[in-house]
Design a protein that fits this description.
The chain is α/β, with parallel strands linked by helices. It contains 11 helices and 17 strands. It binds 5-S-methyl-1-O-phosphono-5-thio-D-ribulose.
Length: about 350
Amino acid sequence: MQINGQEYRSVWFENSRVKMIDQNKLPFAFEIREYSSYIEVAAAIREMIVRGAPAIGASGAYGLALAALSAPQDKFRAYLRSARDELISTRPTAVDLSIGVNYVYENTLKFIPDLDHARQVALLAANEFANRSAAECLELGIIGASLIQDGYRILTHCNAGALATVDHGTALATIRQAHKQGKNIFVYVDETRPRFQGARLTAFELEQEGIPHAIITDAASGFYFWKNEIDMVITGSDRICLNGDIANKIGTYEKAVMARAHKVPFYVAAPVSTFDFGCENGEDIMIEIRDEKELKFCGETPVANPNSIALNPAFDITPAAYITGIITPKGIFEPAEASQKVQA
Ligand code: MRU
């Protein structure tokens, strides 16, 4: 992705360190964080310095590579297992995280007892996972852009951009490609309370690319649907089930129901690492519940009645019946067939 005219990934490995753009600071400051231990990487994922399903998948993979590089000779296997468990436990809903971490874990174990080789393989596997993820997002963007017609006004939720992936994005990858093709498009950006990934990150990415857009409150999309000013909805996903149900940022389900009520197509875009081939349907997905402080404070400023409790599920489930199609690097599929098709 281009930021201030320079090319970046959301996360990468350089000089024995995992580096990532601090997404909690954007768009007000552009800062790169550097980590030399998997414990620091786990904390960065938990605190959402890096966030978005494919981006935390790659971060977890790099975190495990750091663990392999520093694991003691005599406790290599146990150290790696405990690093794997700690990294995976940081955020429970996005399946990309466990897929990325386990990819490095399994490839590394194959080379025990040659530990020097195993350590090298860990880093190679993490890089391979990140590169594949970026390439898939580029590909799905090109494929998904075919759905976007000249003049379309598109609604998106949360940040499904390059920041949420290693590069290119998911929902935003399709929008980027359509813009590159010269299509005249406009993007409605849900602010995405409580952490404002839309208002801060999606709006920032669209500005960097020169794509026309406006931030709206999460509740405002109904008004624009009613005015017939939304032609299409595209979101990302954190987990896609075998039956085509998906988990994504809280509020996604509402957008899908609203789209159906107004006969507007609702698409989900995702790389293969977001498919959970062991998950039958949305009821099997664990939804991350985050601290109530995220709702009751805006930064340091209290914005809610202090003595009331607040409920803060970070994701919701959109049933397959509300999804027009799933955009993947292998094509655009009906929700119920997507898992099978991406495995073929
Ligand atoms: O809590 P976040 O910011 O990690 O949630 C991110 C989302 O819900 C995205 O829409 C999802 O990860 C897919 S984006 C590639």
